[in-house]
Write a structure and sequence with these properties.
Layout: H1 6-19, H2 26-30, H3 35-46, E1 49-52, E2 56-59, E3 65-74, E4 80-90, H4 92-96, E5 102-108, E6 111-114, E7 135-145, E8 148-159, E9 165-173, E10 176-184, E11 193-201, E12 204-212, E13 218-226, E14 230-238, E15 242-252, E16 255-265, E17 268-277, H5 281-287, E18 296-308, E19 311-323, E20 326-335, E21 341-348, E22 354-362, H6 365-371, E23 383-391, E24 396-405, E25 408-417, E26 420-431, H7 432-439, E27 449-461, E28 464-475, E29 479-488, E30 491-499, E31 505-514, H8 532-535, E32 539-546, E33 552-560, E34 563-572, E35 577-586, H9 589-595, E36 598-599, E37 602-603, E38 637-646, E39 649-659, E40 662-673, E41 676-690, E42 705-718, E43 721-724, E44 727-734, E45 737-747, E46 750-761, E47 764-778, E48 791-806, H10 810-815, E49 818-831, H11 835-842, H12 851-854, E50 858-871, E51 874-884, E52 887-896, E53 901-910, E54 918-925, E55 930-934
Parallel strand pairs: 5-7, 6-7, 17-18, 26-27, 41-42
Antiparallel strand pairs: 1-3, 2-3, 3-4, 4-5, 4-6, 7-8, 8-9, 9-10, 10-11, 11-12, 12-13, 13-14, 14-15, 15-16, 16-17, 18-19, 19-20, 20-21, 21-22, 22-23, 23-24, 24-25, 25-26, 27-28, 28-29, 29-30, 30-31, 31-32, 32-33, 33-34, 34-35, 35-38, 36-37, 38-39, 39-40, 40-41, 42-43, 42-44, 44-45, 45-46, ...
Helix pairs in contact: 1-3
Length: 945
């Protein structure tokens, strides 16, 4: 028995060696002097080296038992059995007859090593025919079966007739708990025996049924049950060279794998070729701790519908090689949604270092992003990227990234780790608005942070065109752009900003310096047009913001040419709303208003933001310019105000304005609701300077606001000339009209009251209507045009007027003017005709030319009464009578207000006797009318008594 019965050789060798001494005294067996003889006897009987380093004893009571400690048994085929202690129970009746019949065998802490293949095949582990009904115990043992190393083994072994053996127990295989159940049937005549094996390891279980023959060839069916309801079956054949698996079939839910595998022993390695579908790579990752670390593996896999990290992918094709020197994946092709694919080769060292190259091809990037549950970046319709792979398995490092995203070329580096990504990316061109919109959707989820640098040779942010863009940013729970710089329209823009998890600004700082603000006109709403001259100068802007989203404190200082604007609002981003102080300054109010669009006699008005006037802005008519315009007078422009803005409302809560001769304070608020905008406020002016009415106006078809503004002024200037003293009134608006109501406007010692309404109609010219009442006015305070041939230079004046007109200019209003007017005056002076001179001339001999008195001089009068009707700009006198101490004066005719011409007949009746009336006809332009005198009645006239 030199090569057979390996399992039983060690323990039974000691049994045979001791059997010769069983009839001797137990003290003889235990004597140290006889131990060497016992070891040598046992070695000769078994052909193995048997060594006992501990106690050796034999006892008969309460039952016969042989015990030994420190046992080592080794065989010629490198099989070794060591045990801390061995005890063998013997049947008493056979022992009394001088025979051995073992019942139980206990091995304490054995270390059993078997080679593979087993020398002699099944006979190496089958018990000898004479050994029957043995029950062996293995406690805390270690068993090496070829490359398999089992530790902490506790097992029971039973022998039966015909060499049958059954073993059951548990232990550890590479630190994993394992339980085994082995049954070896009777050895057949051909030296083969049926073997059944059941094992459980870490939630996985195995069942093998087959046969082991005398040549140590094992063949049979293997079935595995793995965690996650996975199962594997295969036909197994094993010999001295290795183990082969044919007809492999694996399934788990939607998983189906088929193929072959071979495990070679020298050198140790596994090769498998598998095809299938529904592979869950996450489940395979869970099984990786069960995989022997030193096993060299080569796996060829071609699978459809694989899943990884909870996502499904159309296909996976790769070759995986593992060994103690590391792992390698070659020929990787991972199908992605939208027809995209990830391909490349990579290796993983024993230290988990990565190396290799990857490529991404995505003809439809939008479909790929959707398939991965990510939002797509607008404008990036496709992708073609390549990168070198480095770093470690837990922190992959993608270097030398090159390729395109849409039409944008990109290169750089990305380092990934658990919950974090660091990057450095450079683009030839980049759409910042699209990128910001993508980031606002939080594509990476709340548990991922990203930090890095982004550069772009050219970038656009809406209408802004940037170059040499650099951004250093960190995005986690919030977005922190630590620094951003770019060249912009020949200038520079830089700053920093921190956005909270809802992409609201919590702190910011920005500097903008441009040689001209003209390119920024593209940022304005289409319905807002600012004069080019205003935007042409140098622009400098400094902006800072800090604080929580509901109370973000900001400050801004901007200079545009000679304009300086400062603002310090507190902004509530959650509503959103803002309130704070602002100021605007310019050293020359006239120049400032010209830059804002007020030129000469022309008013160019920009519409309110969000309320476009029909036809856009209100331009001047070509050729209209008055170089002598002094509005609003010499001096600086300065505005100081507190403003507020919120959804549905905006305005100046409190302002102080000075511009040349104009100075005013008050408040103006604009609110918005479903019915439209509502304007309210009040203006208190020290001096209210009004520009000259432009020769041409372009008015809207309707107003975007309604409401009213209360007006007060200590004096009112028109085109630089004082027209009113203390004035109070209301300016009111409605979508179809604007109305000015004068409650009281002082003119000298008198006052003017009334209203003027401008009706608007998109299908018709604006219609003007006015009603005024003047009372107790000093005619000298009116400063009436001196070009009219007859004027009132003094006197107490009262007047009424009810007028209508329509059109887009003052000239047109004059042409369409209609209505009626009355004037009464007393104790005044009429310039342009002298009744006293006429009476004196009639009484003088020789008589001077009477026409001189009818074309110049003055007439003090007691009363003056005028009444007129107006139609189409023509004023027809229905009553005109002046009474004076020097006589009376009557007039009739028309005055053309549109052409500034007149056709009047004056009848002068001096205070002479007998009565005499002389007439003069005035016709032509106001400034220099033609005069035709009717003096025939004076030819024969002589003073009476």
């Amino acid at each position: 028995m030199t090569r057979k019965h390996l399992l039983w050789a060690g323990p039974l060798a000691l049994l045979v060696a001791l059997g010769a001494a069983l009839l001797a005294l137990p003290s003889f067996v235990a004597a140290p002097a006889h131990r060497t003889a016992v070891e040598a006897f046992a070695s000769r009987l078994t052909g193995r080296d048997v060594h006992i380093s501990g106690k050796l004893s034999l006892s008969y009571f309460p039952q016969p038992e042989i015990t030994a400690t420190g046992i080592t048994i080794s065989g010629p085929d490198k099989e070794v059995i060591t045990a801390h202690a061995l005890s063998l129970d013997l049947a008493l009746a056979p022992l009394l007859q001088g025979q051995l019949a073992a019942r139980t065998l206990d091995l304490d802490t054995p270390n059993i090593t078997f080679p593979w293949p087993l020398p002699g095949g099944i006979s190496a582990i089958a018990p000898p025919p004479w050994l029957a009904a043995l029950h062996a115990h293995i406690k805390n043992g270690r068993i090496n079966f070829g490359a398999a190393d089992f530790t902490d083994v506790n097992a029971d072994l039973f022998t039966g007739a015909g060499g049958s053996v059954s073993v059951s127990g548990n232990g550890k295989l590479q630190t994993h708990d394992v339980s085994l159940s082995l049954a070896v049937g009777e050895t057949e005549a051909d030296g083969a025996a049926q073997i059944t094996l059941r094992a459980a390891l870490g939630g996985a279980s195995a069942h093998f049924a087959g046969a082991l023959n005398a040549q140590s060839e094992l063949a049979g069916q293997l079935n595995l049950a793995l965690p996650g309801h996975a199962s594997v079956s295969a036909q197994i054949s094993a010999n001295a060279n290795g183990i082969s698996a044919e007809d492999i079939s694996a399934s788990q839910d939607k998983l189906a794998l088929h193929g072959t595998a071979h495990l070679a022993f020298a050198p140790l390695g596994l090769r498998a070729d598998l095809t299938g579908q529904g592979l869950d790579l996450d489940q395979l990752t869970k099984l990786s701790p069960l995989w022997p670390g030193g096993l060299a593996t080569e796996l060829h896999l071609d699978a459809a519908n694989v899943s990884l990290a909870g996502r499904s992918f159309p296909a996976l094709r790769a070759t995986l090689k593992t060994s103690p020197a590391g792992s390698a994946v070659s020929g990787l092709t991972l199908g992605l949604p939208g027809g995209a694919s990830l391909s490349g080769d990579l290796t993983i060292s024993p230290n988990q270092d990565l190396s290799g190259r990857l490529s991404l091809a995505a003809p439809d990037l939008t479909a790929l992003a959707s398939g991965l549950g990510l939002p797509a970046v607008p404008g990036w319709t496709s992708a073609s990227l390549q990168a070198q792979l480095g770093g470690t398995r837990d922190a992959p490092d993608l270097t030398d990234i090159t390729g395109t995203l849409g039409a944008d070329h990109v290169n750089g580096r990305v380092v990934l780790s658990a919950g974090h990504a660091a990057f450095r990316l450079a683009f030839d061109q980049l759409d910042l608005a699209s990128l910001a919109a993508w980031l606002a959707q939080r594509p990476l989820g709340g548990g991922v942070s990203v930090a890095g640098e982004l550069t772009a040779a050219h970038a656009v942010a809406g209408p802004l065109k940037l170059s040499n863009l650099f951004i250093d940013a960190d995005m986690g729970a919030q977005l922190d752009i630590r620094r951003a710089t770019a060249s912009l329209y020949g200038g520079i823009a830089n700053g920093s900003v921190t956005l909270d998890r809802d992409f609201k600004v919590t702190s910011a700082h920005a500097v903008l310096d441009l040689p001209s603000a003209a390119p920024l006109a593209a940022l304005l709403p289409q319905d807002v047009k600012l004069p080019a001259e205003l935007l042409r100068p140098h622009l400098s802007l400094v902006l800072a913001a800090a604080g929580p989203p509901n109370a973000l404190s900001t400050s801004a200082v901007a200079t545009l040419g000679d304009f300086t604007l400062t603002a310090a609002p507190v902004i509530d981003l959650t509503k959103p709303s803002a309130a704070g102080a602002l100021s605007l300054r310019h050293p020359d109010a006239i120049a400032a208003l010209k830059l804002l669009g007020l030129r000469g006699g022309c008013s160019r008005m920009a519409p309110l933001p969000g309320y476009p006037f029909q036809g856009g802005s209100l331009p001047c008519s070509a050729g209209v310019n008055d170089p002598g315009l002094a509005f609003p007078g010499p001096g600086a422009l300065a505005l100081r105000a507190r403003f507020s803005a919120a959804p549905g409302s905006a305005g100046l809560n409190d302002f102080v304005l000075s511009a040349g001769q104009l100075n005013a304070s008050g408040q103006i608020m604009l609110t918005q609701d479903k019915s439209g905008g509502k304007l309210s406020g009040q203006i208190d002016a020290g001096t209210l300077a009004l520009p000259k009415l432009p020769a041409s106006l372009q008015m809207p078809g309707s107003l975007p606001v309604s409401g009213q503004i209360a007006l007060k002024a200590n004096q009112v200037l028109y085109a630089g000339t004082p027209v009113f003293g203390a004035t109070a009134g209301t300016l009111s608006f409605a979508p179809d009209q604007a109305r000015l109501t004068l409650d009281d406007a002082a003119i000298g010692t008198g006052k003017l009251s009334g209203s003027a309404t401008l009706k608007l109609d998109p299908k018709a010219p604006p219609a003007l209507s006015a009603k005024f009442l003047a009372d107790g006015i000093d005619a000298g305070a009116l400063a009436l045009p001196q070009s009219f041939p007859l004027t009132l230079t003094s006197g107490q004046l009262s007047a009424t007027a009810s007028l209508t007109a329509s059109g887009y200019s003052a000239k047109t209003w004059a042409a369409t003017l209609g209505g009626s007017a009355t004037i009464t005056a007393s104790n005044g002076t009429l310039s342009g005709l002298s009744l006293p001179d006429l009476a004196s001339a009639l009484s003088t001999t020789p008589r001077p030319a009477l026409s001189k008195s009818l074309s110049g001089g003055t007439t003090p009068f007691a009363t003056l009464s005028l009444a007129a009707t107006i139609a189409q700009g023509n004023c027809t006198l229905t009553q005109a009578q002046l009474t004076a101490p020097a006589g009376t004066l009557a007039a009739s005719g028309t005055i053309d207000l549109f052409e500034s011409t007149l056709a009047l007949k004056l009848g002068a009746t001096p205070a002479v006797k007998p009565p005499l009336t002389l007439s003069v006809r005035l016709s032509g332009p106001w400034g220099k009318p033609g005069r035709e005198y009717d003096l025939k009645d004076a030819t024969g006239w002589k003073p009476g008594s």
